[in-house]
Amino acid sequence: MTAILWQLVQVVLALATAPLVTGYVRFVKARLNGRRGPSVLQPYRDLYRLVQKEAVVAHSASWIFHAAPYVVFASAWLAACLIPTFTTNIFLAPAADLIALVALLAVGRFWLALAGMDVGTAFGGIGASREMLIASLAEPAMLMVTFSLSLVSGTTQPAQIIAFVLGGNVGIEVSLGLALAAMVMVAIAENGRIPIDNPSTHLELTMVHEAMVLEYSGRHLAMIEAAAMVKLTLYMALIACLFAPWGMAQPGADFPAIAIGMASFMLKLFVLASGLALFETAIAKMRVFRYADFLGGALLLGLLATIFLYVSEAV
Amino acid sequence: MLQALSYDLAHLIGATVLMAGFGLLYQRRLFAVLNTFSFQALALAAAAAWQAHVQHAPHLYFTAGIALVFKAMIVPFALHWLVERLGIHRTVETALSIGWTMIIGVALVALSILLVLPVTAKAAALTRESLALAMSVVLLGMLMMITRRNAVTQVVGFMALENGLILAAVSAKGMPLVVEISVAFSVLVAMTLFGIFFFRIRERFDSLDLNYIETFRGDRQ
Amino acid sequence: MRRAQPGGWAPMLIAAALLALPLLSLFAIFAGRKDATHGVVYAGAFLCSVALISAGLEHLGNHWGPPALVLPFGLPWLSAHFRVDNLSALFLLIVNVPAAAASAFAVGYSHHLPERRRVTPFYPMFLFGMNAVLVADDAFVFLVAWEFMSLASWLMVLADHRSSVNRKAAMVYLTMAVFGTFCLLPAFGLLAGGGGDYTFASMRLHSLGPLAGALVVLLALMGAGSKAGLVPLHAWLPLAHPAAPSHVSALMSGVMTKVALYGLIRILFDLHGHVGWQWGAAMMVVGGISAVMGVLYAVMQDDVKTLLAYSTVENVGIVVIGLGLAIAFKDDGEKSLAALALVAGLYHMINHAVFKSLLFLGAGSVIAATGQRSLAALGGLLKRMPWTGAAFLMGAAAISALPPLNGFVSEWLVLQSLFKGPAVPHWAMKFGVPVVGALFALAAALAGTCFVRCFGIGFLGRPRSVEAAEATDVTFGMRWSMAALAGLCVVLGAIPVRITDALSVVVQPLIGTGFAVSSDLGWPFLSPVSNTRGSYSGTVLVMVGLSLFGIAIALVHRLGTRATRAADSWDCGTPEDNPATQYTGQSFAQPLRRSFGATIFRARESVVMPQPGDDSPARHKATMIDPIWTGLYERLARVVDAVAERVNRMQYLTVRRYLLMMFCTLVFLLLVVAVRQQQ
User: Fold this and answer.
1) Which B-chain residues 100-139 have CB contacts (< 8 A) with chain A?
2) Which pLDDT does position C5 carry in this prediction?
3) How close A31 gets to chain C, by Cα (Å)?
């Protein structure tokens, strides 16, 4: 029963904190650039403003264009509901493991790419083609990270991995460090952050994610922006829960433990968001044709993480 | 528990050296290669210092010092200055594409793990991991030497190889003459560097005479 | 006819269908001139398929012991044996469900085929051959049926023989088919030993020495593997599958490859029984390479049917990864893991048969509506052909392994068994499994890219040719056959536990233990081994996902406005109505071509810009080679040519030289006899 309660809390929490995280990242980036920057709550206002506006749809668009924003948003939100954030005792935990999570995000990406190609402009094609290149390397890297985690903990369910780590069975493993590095690279690529993609660019030829959604406006754009924010929060929550699960409440925990779980989750989001802002400010965006090197590196790091487990006798 | 932690930390630092080795293979710009090499030497210094602390072997602090001062600061700075002065091409020329180089690198790491595991079956897991890491760094250094066309990057590869040997030496408990070996290798590297650059200078200017070379400075025309 | 055991209606239905199919062929040959014949023949084939489906379902459902049937045909000292066991019954379903859909499709589609009189007579024979392979219980029937299958499909590949591309395709196909049988013959010979009894029952009892055993595995892999499409023996697939008419391609790609894999499973798991783990590891590596190479080739293709054929190579690779894992686990005694891997492989075979046929039928609809096969001439078809488009989208989503459809479930199971791979205590496996896992993951991700490209360029955007702009959707029968397959994709993804339970029954006699799904969480959850190990529920995800979808729509419409306005697309201020400005298939694949293709395919691009003042167009040229074709096949062909040149000289010898040859042969044989007598 409590599992359902915490699941509902998580559903609301995932949606409610997502714009805050994005707003905070923009705020820190602005300050690091020497600007005052918009308020941390600005993304909420942006989303509200967008849904009030009329949606302009191109003549050549089909039903996919209309349906895609909702599918993308629903898949991102669903994925965010499946990751343990402040407690592992959530109702939907057995419905999907890490592999299913990756595939769920792939659903969103599939529809977004199709939406980009739907109108029949060159920009949509640019976005879709680059996004699929990134996906075709980032997804395997993520699966290799899952492989190492599953070899270490014997399971692919996030809740069980957390239970294993919190049970004190794992020391500081080189493999986990490598897996963390690979996962961070994948997270950067999947969320379209620098150095893969500049989320605030206005030049179409440098766009990846923005190019796919160039035609969207009004409530459709609001859904897609919201989906991107939820996805960012989701990846941060995933990194936090898999590699730094301390503070999380386990099944059967009482209310103080839940409160500690919430607080530690917020703290982890804060740290990761600050880190992301710092990293984005320090590095320049890379050329499209270097994506394969970067993400191939992530894939090889994931592979190395798996191989290293043998030498450290953790397997 | 504390011992396990100290071993874990040693392996973590060793893994950083290995990652820097991969980083060396990944870079396409010469200055980035030099910076990555500094980072690798820094990590090596940290590894040597940590081993000095854990093994209670103070002479390893000297090795750490040599790695820090000579390899992390002096050599990269000198190479940086030489590259600028001689106008050497700043992109790394590769004999094999970077993707394939990285794949071969991973295969070499797998090879060294495969080799180390049966040989040290009786030894503790900690020695195995350090040996595997060190051997991987050596092999990656060699890989860098054979897949790069530029003399500077080949020298950096050689020094990376040497970093791997030093890592192995400091990780093995009670290895004698580590400091002496470090100094000897450093002198060897310095001589090699000088040799290469004198060769290039002579090739470019047809003379090693500094008076003659100085007439090529822009402000004297 | 003797009956060994009662088996319900299944044997009767199978026998009736297998007798009816050749009769349908004869009917098509003699009554070919009338238009209605084609419809009748395909309808008849549909009914036979349905009969076979019922037989398969009945057999699996009732768990009858395998009834055997011996017919008085065959070699003089051997009758023809037929047998239906659980594996055959499963494959009867895998073969006949797409066959039924394709037959229903062909009733309408055959009107669009100018060469249909050369296709219809051989179609029932093709079905006959495939089904007879599945129920064969001795090597003779197996191989004769195999040959029927190959030859019938070859004749259909050659239906439009005026095109030189098709003739080349048929030539390559025939060569590879002959090669396949050439490998299978000695394999069966070795399995039977010297006894002369070629029934499968005796092969099971005969034990093989190590050399013979290894040879059997190698020959089976080459023979069945070439028919299934394993790299490097896949080269005929992308030539032959596109050359045949679409309903035939659907069966060749979706079903005939499964029959080949059936042969592989039958030989490796049933008849041989003791395959070493090294072969399993080798199969995994070959499967992984096939998967990646297949999808990389697919991503570069513009011809829709060639793209789908290469995608088949990828999926066969995935299945073989599962089979290899099963063999490795079985050899090490990890029976439950072997069962998991084999169930994963079988499930993927079912899924692939369904969605590949769906995709090919969709391609057939597009070709029927537009006459175009190349992505460079399609576009905007979703608005003109909504049913075909929706069905193709479903197939594309299924093959890209998106939850909650069926493709995801089987790939999830393969991944779960891969993650357990390091349990095998051999270092080659411990290092090989992560590498194969990386290859598999790469192939799965690239498949998504491939089908986003195929569907996006082909069906979305603006039409790139007049034919695409004027396309209309296909007829009732064609639509519904595609819709049925699409519905099956959804169903197979929604009830994975039922399917794995059924597959467990199939796997039990081959591995020695069944496949257990942990029932702690209940029927919606697929949780192999144990529910803490990893679980997935498509139904729960869909239900929650749909509710979140609904909440999102409700929220948006409550907080905002529902107003929509139609306008032109964003054009940066320079209106350009030409559909040639949108992305083409080659543009979409360019980042992949540059990243992956530069080394593997030696992909090079060049742009020739005209001089200022010159108003000729700029030209962009992209070249690629097929490394396996030039590296292996062309080289082999050159060697064969050279040897043939030399041997050809024997045609022009003098009479005296011929007599000399005969004399030498005679003397040699007498020597051999003399030497052997001494021993």
Assistant:
1) 102-103, 105-106, 109-110, 113, 116-117, 125, 128-129, 132
2) 46
3) 32
Q: Do B14 and B47 form a contact (C-beta atoms < 8 A)?
A: yes
Cα distances (angstroms) measured from residue B118 to each of A174, B113, C281, C289, C428: 20, 9, 21, 29, 13
What is the reported pTM? 0.92
Distance CA C91, CA C319 (A): 14
Q: What is the pLDDT at residue C3?
A: 43
User: Which residues of B are less than 8 Å from A172 in CB distance?
Assistant: 5, 8-9, 12
Three-class SS state of C566: strand
Question: Distance (Å, rounded) from C-alpha C88 to C-alpha C60?
Answer: 10
A163-177, B44-58, C21-35: least confident range: A163-177
A216: helix, coil or strand?
coil
Whole-angstrom CA distances from C501 to C8, C54, C159 are 22, 19, 42
DSSP 8-state class, residue C278 = H
How close is the nearest chain C Cα to the Cα of B114, in Å? 8
Instruction: Give the total number of structural domains in chain A.
Output: 1
Q: Which chains touch C (3 or more CB pairs under 8 A)?
A: A, B
Give the A:B interface size as CB pairs under 8 Å: 56
Segment A192-198 shows an average pLDDT of 90
Q: Which helix (H) or strand (E) holds C2?
A: strand C2-3
Residue C1 pLDDT > 50, yes or no? no
Cβ within 8 Å, pair B129-A312 = yes
> How do residues B62-106 score in pLDDT, each as one tens digit?
889 888 998 899 889 988 888 887 777 788 888 888 888 999 999
Q: Strand runs (DSSP E) across C499-615, as ranges?
A: 564-567, 604-608
Q: How far apart are CA B136 and CA B125, in angstroms?
A: 16
With residue C621 as reference, give the H or E element that holds it.
strand C619-623
Is the Cβ pair A174, B22 closer than 8 Å? no
* Domain hosting residue A306, numbered range: 2-311
Please spell the DSSP secondary structure of C126-186, one letter per residue. Answer: HHHHHHHHHHB-BHHHHHHHHHHHHHHHHHHHTSSTTSHHHHHHHHHHHHHHHHHHHHHHH
For residue A306, count CB atoms less than 10 angstroms from its CB and return exposed for 0-12, middle for 13-18, buried for 19 or more: buried
Q: What is the mean pLDDT of residues B183-205?
A: 76
Cβ of residue C34 closer than 8 Å to a chain A Cβ: no
d(C-alpha C461, C-alpha B52), whole Å: 66
In degrees to the nearest 10, what's the CA dihedral of A125, A126, A127, A130?
A: 120
Q: Which residue of C has its CA nearest to B97?
A: C599
Query: Tokens standing for C405?
Result: 């459809």
- CA C245 to CA C242: how far, in whole Å? 7
Out of A134-148, C406-420, C506-520, pick the least confident. Answer: C506-520
- Quick one: tokens of B48? 């040597």
Measure the CA angle with vertex A49, ends A43 and A53; round to 5°.
Answer: 140
What would the mean pLDDT of A194-202 be, rounded to a whole number? 87
Q: Determine the average pLDDT of the residues in C408-433.
A: 90
- Helix, strand, or coil here: C571? coil
Task: Quick: pLDDT tens for C506-526.
Answer: 888 888 887 777 666 676 777
Strands (E), C391-528: none
Beta pairing partners, C605: C622
Q: Are C122 and C156 in contact (CB under 8 A)?
A: yes
pLDDT of residue C650: 82
Alpha-carbon span C90 to C628, nearest angstrom: 34
Sign of CA dihedral C190, C194, C196, C202: negative
Q: Which residues of A touch C518 (CB under 8 A)?
A: none
> Kind and range of the H or E element at A232?
helix A218-243
Higher pLDDT residue, B5 or A189?
A189
Res C199: pLDDT:
85
Q: Helix or strand or coil: residue C367?
A: helix
